[in-house]
Amino acid sequence: MATHTDTAPTAVGSGHAPAEERMEQLVGNLLRIGVLIAAAVAFLGGIAFLAHYGLARADYATFRGEPTALSTLGGIVRGALALHWPAVVQLGIVLLIATPVARVLLTVVAFAVRKDWMYVLVSAVVFALLVYSLLGG
Predict the structure, then answer these.
(1) Does residue 106 lie within any of the structural domains?
(2) Which of 71, 84, 85, 107 could form a disulfide with 49 if both were Cys (CB 3.0 to 4.6 A apart)?
(3) What gap in Å lies between CA 90 and CA 35, rounded to an integer?
(4) What CA–CA distance (Å, rounded) separates 41 from 47?
C-alpha cells in the first residue's frame, strides 16, 4: 500500500531574470508610492479645505468657475506652496495623473538600459502621446 504525503507547495520564482524582477519591483513600488503620495496630498488638502471653508454658506444662485490659478500646473504648484487648500487638492490629483506617466518613462529607461530598442521606441511613443495629450494636444 502506497502512502501519500502532503507537502506544502514551494515558492516558485516568476521565471524572469533577476534584472527583470528588480525592474518589475521598481515599477510596482513607483506606482504604489505615487498613488499613496497623491492620495495623502489630496486627502490632507481636502481635510484642510473643509476645516477652513466647510462652514461657509454656499451660494448656488451664482456660478463661479474654476479660478485661473487652478487651471495651470504652475498655478497649482504656486498655490499649493502657499497652502491654498484648493490648490493642494488639485496637486494631489495632478500627482495621481503623473504616476502612470512616470511609470511609462521608467519603462523607457529600463528598456534602454537593457538595450531593447524596439520596446524603447514603443514606450517612447506611448510616453510622447501621453505628454502631448496631457499638455492639451
Answers:
(1) yes
(2) 85
(3) 14
(4) 10
| Integer Cα distance of 1 and 127 in angstroms | 63
Domain-embedded: residue 86: yes
**Does any domain span residue 1?**
no
Q: Is 67 helix (H, G, I), strand (E, B) or coil?
A: coil
Tens-binned pLDDT, residue by residue, of the chain (137 aa)? 555 555 544 445 556 678 788 888 988 999 999 999 999 999 999 999 999 988 888 888 888 888 888 888 899 999 999 999 999 999 999 999 999 999 999 999 999 988 999 999 999 999 999 999 988 76
**Residue among 83, 91, 74 nearest 40 (CA):** 91
CB 80: neighbour CB atoms within 10 A? 20
pTM greater than the 0.90 cutoff: no
